[in-house]
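input
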Amino acid sequence: MDDLDLWFDETWKKLPTYLFTSQTKGSRKMALDELKKVKPTIETLGAIRAWVESKEAIDVELRKSGTFVASWPHFHRMIKRQFWQDDLPVIKQKKRSMDQSNCACGAAIDHSASRLCWACYDKRYGNSLCGHT
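output
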């Protein structure tokens, strides 16, 4: 067993089955054959592992936030498409005002209506007495 086989065994064990289509990684033999066709360097193997770990962390975070995340294709298809060269998705954080006495627009809040200043409150709900038009 050579270094590529050892690397593949370690990586295969770490793959998150629950993120793949049909909860399966696909054919182990087909994935190893595709990897051998690529003739990866040490840098490529490092990039593959780093990409898988990053993608798993990002997908788990997105799913926890309620965002739809497509399942991964079988691993041999990912290797064939050289997935490690793709850009990773970015998790966009909502900007929140650090000062709870200010609205998101920066204006002071002098009431407790939805944590908005009066101008933002009127834009969102209208300016009727009940707050909704």
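quick obs: Helices lie at 3-14, 28-38, 42-64, 75-80, 118-125.
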